[in-house]
Amino acid sequence: MRLPTYRHINHQQHCSFVIKEGPFDLNTCWHYHEEIEIMYFQQGAVAGIMGDGFYHFKAGELVLLGSNFPHVIFKAKDENTSSVVPSGVVIQFKRDFLGSPFFEAPELNSISRLLAKSRGGIRFVPLLTDSCQHLLHGIGTRSSTRQLLDLLEILNLLAEEKGHELLSLKAAHSASEPDEARMQVIWQYLQRNFRENIAVKDVAEIVNMTVTSFCRYYKSRTLKHFKQTLNEMRVSYACELLLKNNNVQEACFESGFNNPAYFSRTFKKIVGVSPSAYRSSTALKVQRW
Questions:
Q1: pTM score, two decimals?
Q2: Which of 36, 76, 105, 219 is the most exposed place for a label (fewest CB within 10 A)?
Q3: C-alpha 54: how far from its chain's center?
Q4: Domains of the chain, with CATH numbers?
Q5: CB-side exposure of 244: number of CA atoms within 13 Å?
Q6: Which residues in the chain show pLDDT less than 70?
Q7: Helix (H) or strand (E) holding 219
Q8: CA dist 60 to 18, 41, 123, 175, 287, Å?
């Protein structure tokens, strides 16, 4: 098997970890990333390569994959579930997302051991406690504070769970690949300059690639077009501005957009509501608080 590719996980600016709930993205390539990942299978038949093993997963199972653990999932050929879209919950976070010393606290010893063990990947059979399943279902719809508390409780319950097995004895993939260094250069450039007028050719030049090669490379590593990532970063920053009670036009231009109509369309596509509706709803929440 060829070497896995490094995949950059795009964290929104106002979030310290990622939660995705719904149909799985089954178009990913064989990859690894710095983030620790929880993958909970809710429905549908899924197969996957985890580390150096091939597995089938069914509803109710969960895997905890450590930092830089290579993996890929795809729809399994199962006549009983062929019409069911595989879906579930994916949570991705860096070990130090709450600060490097956080999980070193003596009260969190069991979770710290769990995260260390996850470097070889852990599979939990469908015997998770009702409490853990309850926390996972609908986690993507809760407030950010509630999500954080629920994540910690999920890790606590997994640390106590006895029904699990190691997926692989193989060590995590080395994070020193040149591929990762290139993605870090791209990401750091975007973080510094996303409010400016960035063209694809500008980013391609800093990593010594042609525009065509860069676009193909970026899509293969992030599963997104470059413009999509840039818009997501800008909209995330615009949300912060609107939360601070800036008006919509200020949020538009200060976040890097130069066309209010395009800003409104893009914002609604990503957030689900218009900038003005978002601003009004957040202002109402502040007043109630």
A1: 0.66
A2: 105
A3: 23
A4: 5-166 (2.60.120.10), 178-288 (1.10.10.60)
A5: 11
A6: 1-2, 12-13, 77-82, 127-129, 169-179, 223, 281-289
A7: helix 211-222
A8: 21, 6, 11, 31, 41
